[in-house]
Write a structure and sequence with these properties.
The structure holds two protein chains of two kinds. In chain A, about 50% of the residues lie in helices and about 0% in strands. Chain A starts with a helix and ends with a helix. Among the domains of chain B are: about 80 residues, no CATH class; about 150 residues, no CATH class; about 100 residues, no CATH class; about 80 residues, no CATH class. Helix content of chain B is about 35%, strand content about 10%. In chain B, the strands form eight sheets. Chain B has a three-stranded mixed sheet with strand order 2-1-11, with no helix packed on it. The chains are: A mainly alpha, B alpha+beta. At the A-B interface, strand 1, helix 2, helix 3, helix 4 and helix 6 of A face helix 2, helix 4, helix 7 and strand 19 of B. Strand 1 of chain A pairs antiparallel with strand 19 of chain B, so a sheet runs across the interface.
Chain lengths: ~230, ~675
């Protein structure tokens, strides 16, 4: 046993002290082409992110042209829904520069920015449903910045389309009928509307909104955070 | 277009529905395309998107539904619409944003603006009836009484308290005797409480008779309340601080330094203040109460009528709170975020930024020559800025400068004589033009916000170089060898940038770093024999801040920063402004910045022709922005910038459409 160990030790020492093994350089074999893909190097137009100033100013307008402090107060509300924190919490996420601390303007979207837009959209749409569709006495049409139409139950697709168009113009700036895509955008959103109505009708949970109000809020969320809303 | 036409049938029905609903007042307020066009061809998606882009870029917001209806009218004239809206605050804000993004002209927390001469702090003591009261005072205020000379005006013996700096009072408060209170303090109706504070008996108190205060003027709650929560009607101020004269006399006691280890007399925390050297030699002579040294070298100068030359704080710390300010103003001061009470420094710095925003706004709204941004001697100020330039700015000078015989600003960048006298510190909403700030004024280059944001000569020069010449300093040689060469224009590894930067920085040699104080030739000659190098190779200690021993010799010291160009040092910021606006890069840089901002992307060599064409328009129009923006939004590049199909090749305005072979296999 001892002899085996000694032999192993001597062998190992000889190997360790021997000249290093040399790997001679040689070129790797060429990879065979699987297919050829065209590379487009032509300069492209790209989408511009709506400046946060323009978005915020529009947001204030959708709240009835209120001042930022008033919008914050109204969006927060007193119902404990925590729909809105404070502008201070959102400004950087929205892409505003911070000159005091030398933080530049965000030129591209990021996950936090998109999440912020979503949160802002929910706060806007929920408060707009309360203000435009739900309040008593009824808010005059001229004072409805978002849902400038009467709700209707049940809502047929034909009745939905012109109302949806109002929202589409508000957020995206053009008639829904011109929206690109193989399927009518109004039809797609009517699907969303109908699903929300059906889900709410099934649900036994106590809710702030009627099924159609909740459905309008959902349509509003969809448009207010639509990529076309935030890009131009 | 095809899609719009194919939907015309349902839209006719929809329009009928809309008309009916509108008649009965309960229908959706929408105007279908075909109906709105009144039989004319409906607008295309591209037209809608271009209109939205114009609205975002020029009005600063999305178009409203009513504005979209306006677009849909057959009479809509895009050109007229653009012309009509290339004015107003939103347009000016849009252009201002371009330069604010580059220069970031807001000053951070590192800069404090609480000069002793204009900062009123306060201590809480017990009044004669045992109730707590506040007493306002200035740090370092000279007083005739030894017990309080240079300190708070009530002693430990009188209050039972010691008042250490930046700490709460120590000890057990005792009621201050009425006679002492009456002798040492005065009741004042100050500017932050009374709109009519200049009257003999002001009556219009904030929130009680003065109900139309400017929206941005919001005193902190603690400035409006007594310690027991009652509303403040008058403030109690140490009697020296409450004085109202414009001229005082230099005060000197002839006091000599006490032997080392001698405890301060009268229960004081600090030794008795010693006389200022200048005050000693000029004792009894007149001095302006607006001089910074008035607080430390006179006993008969105060804060003026209604304390108008001083800013109040709600405590005794270095940075007491004062007024409520919006935490940020992303949409300008007219649409502020919720306010919180902030420090005196924050108050001043907020208005510095507002000054430059108004300055830019005026140039863009009135479509003035854009070169004025660097060359104009005028500006606009409101009440808080008027107070700053009238008193606070001067109070920030002079300490180290006094060794050179400059006790107060001799040639200020903003002459106090031209500050509009009718502006009171509480008038935040009144902005008045000042046509000529001073002989040294030069656009934004001599504004406090620029000089404090870019605190060193080199930072100031680099900011101008970047913002207005679109160039930046990038090292060409990263290898920095050890060197004792003081001349950075030749030192290996430094010269690549500093050969250009140092001569530019020399333009700011006469404006102190981290300050706005101008160093006049009469007191700070370019070559100063008083700062010559001694046998040990050093200049006198008082010279170090202003004269660079590395470039001095046995006959004179050389003004700091001037070694690269004595001529530039002499010309000052005005020389820099003149050089920059005359350079060919100035116009093309301005055009490039505006173009890149409106196109929403960095420019490339593809855009050279566009920039060249727009630069021609800009310069021919006398460097006015409106013709430039008009030409830009008319350009194909802008029209195509909102192409939502991101795979679409860019159509360059001066070139034919991208040929088919632009899309090719592999690399070209």
């Amino acid at each position: 046993m001892r002899a085996l160990a000694a032999t192993t030790f001597v062998y190992t020492a000889l190997v360790a002290c021997g000249p290093p093994s040399v790997v001679h350089p040689e070129s790797a074999p060429a990879l065979s082409a699987a297919s050829r893909v065209a590379m487009d190097t032509a300069p492209k137009e790209d989408l511009r992110l709506v400046p946060p100033e323009a978005y915020m100013r529009s947001y204030l307008q959708w709240f009835g042209a209120l001042a930022p402090a008033d919008v914050q107060k109204r969006a927060k509300g007193a119902d404990g829904n925590q729909l809105f924190d404070s502008w201070d919490d959102y400004l950087s996420a929205m892409g505003f520069p911070d000159y005091r601390n030398d933080l530049p303007r965000a030129q591209q979207t990021n996950a936090i920015m998109v999440a912020t837009f979503e949160r802002l959209a929910i706060a806007l749409c929920d408060r707009a449903v309360e203000h435009d569709l739900k309040s008593l006495p009824v808010t005059p049409m001229a004072e409805r910045a978002v849902f400038a139409f009467e709700n209707q139950e049940p809502m047929t697709e034909a009745a939905f389309a012109p109302r949806f168009d109002v929202l589409h113009r508000t957020f995206l700036g053009y008639p829904a009928t011109l929206a690109p895509g193989p399927v009518s955008r109004s039809h797609i959103y009517y699907g969303l509307f109908s699903e929300v109505v059906a889900a709410r009708q099934k649900s036994k949970a106590k809710a702030r909104f009627t099924p159609t109000e909740a459905a309008w809020a959902a349509v509003c969320y969809g448009l207010a955070r639509h990529p076309e809303t935030h890009l131009y | 277009m095809q899609r719009a036409l194919s939907t015309r049938g349902p839209l006719v029905l929809a329009s009928l529905l809309a008309v009916l609903l509108a008649l009965f007042g309960s229908g959706p307020r929408f105007v279908p395309v075909a109906a709105a066009a009144g039989g004319a061809a409906p607008r295309t998606l591209e037209e809608y998107r271009q209109f939205r882009a114009l609205s975002i870029d020029i009005l600063g917001r999305f178009p409203t539904r009513a504005e979209i209806e306006e677009l849909e009218r057959p009479t809509f004239d895009r050109e007229a619409w653009v012309q009509k809206h290339l004015a107003g605050p939103a347009y000016a804000e849009r252009l201002t944003r371009i330069y604010m993004d580059v220069l970031r002209l807001e000053v951070g927390n590192a800069v404090n603006v609480t000069p002793a001469a204009t900062t009123l702090r306060r201590e809480q003591v017990q009044g004669p009836d045992g109730k707590p009261i506040y007493v306002y005072y200035r740090r370092g205020q000279r007083r005739a009484r030894e017990a309080t000379d240079g300190e708070f005006c009530l002693s430990k013996e009188e209050t039972g308290l010691e008042f250490p700096q930046n700490q709460p009072p120590r000890g057990t408060a005792i009621p201050v005797k009425k006679a002492v209170l009456d002798a040492e303090t005065t009741l004042v109706r100050p500017w932050w409480l009374y709109r009519d504070f200049l009257q003999v008996s002001p009556q219009l108190r904030y929130g009680a008779g003065w109900n139309d205060a400017d929206a941005a003027f919001v005193p902190g709650d603690r400035l409006l309340k007594e310690p027991d929560g009652a509303e403040t009607v008058e403030v109690r101020v140490c009697k020296e601080e409450a004085q109202t004269r414009d001229m005082g006399t230099l005060h000197a006691t002839g006091r000599v330094p006490p032997p080392p280890g001698t405890p301060p007399p009268h229960g004081r925390l600090k030794p008795l203040p010693l006389d200022d050297g200048y005050a000693k030699t000029h004792k009894g002579e007149a001095l302006s109460c607006r001089d910074a040294m008035a607080v430390t070298s006179s006993i008969d100068c105060g804060c003026g009528i209604g304390l108008q030359y001083c800013t109040p704080g709600d405590g005794n710390g270095d940075q007491p709170n004062a007024f409520a300010l919006p935490s940020r103003t992303p949409l300008g001061d007219s649409a502020p975020l919720p306010r919180t009470v902030q420090s005196i420094s924050a108050w001043h710095k907020h208005w510095w930024s507002e000054e430059v925003l108004h300055f830019f706004g005026r140039i863009f709204e009135e479509d003035r020559d854009f070169r004025e941004v660097l060359t104009a001697r005028g500006t606009e100020v409101n009440g808080p800025l008027a107070q700053f330039y009238r008193a606070t700015s001067a109070a920030r000078c002079c300490s180290r400068e006094r060794a050179f015989g400059m006790n107060d600003e001799i040639e200020p960048l903003f002459d106090t004589k031209v500050v509009p006298p009718q502006l009171f510190p509480n008038e935040t909403g009144s902005w008045l033009a000042v046509p000529d700030r001073s002989a040294h004024a030069s656009g934004l280059l001599t504004m406090p916000v620029f000089l404090e944001k870019f605190a060193s000569r080199r930072a100031r020069a680099a900011a101008v170089y970047t913002a207005f010449q679109c160039k930046s300093f990038v090292s060409t040689n990263a290898e920095l060898k050890p060197s004792t060469e003081p001349n950075l224009m030749v030192r290996p590894g430094c010269a690549g940038c500093h050969a250009t930067l140092e001569p530019l920085a020399a333009y700011f040699s006469r404006i102190e770093e981290t300050s706005t104080v101008y160093l006049p030739e009469s007191k700070f000659p370019l070559k100063n024999p008083a700062c010559k190098l001694g046998k040990n190779g050093k200049a006198p200690g008082f010279c170090d801040a202003f004269y660079d021993p590395a470039f001095g010799d046995a006959s004179a010291g050389l003004l700091r920063g001037a070694y690269a160009s004595a001529e530039h040092a002499k010309e000052g910021p005005q020389g820099l402004a003149d050089m920059v606006v005359r350079s060919p890069e100035f116009a093309s840089c301005a055009v490039s910045r505006v173009t890149a901002s409106f196109l929403g992307r960095p420019l490339s060599t593809d855009d050279d022709a566009l920039v060249q064409s727009l630069t021609g328009t800009f310069t021919k129009a006398g460097y006015r922005m409106r013709p430039l923006v008009l030409a830009l939004v008319r350009s194909d590049a802008y029209r195509k910038a909102n192409n939502l199909r991101s795979g679409t090749p860019r159509q360059l305005p001066t070139e034919p459409a991208v040929p088919d072979d632009a899309v090719h296999g592999g690399t070209k």
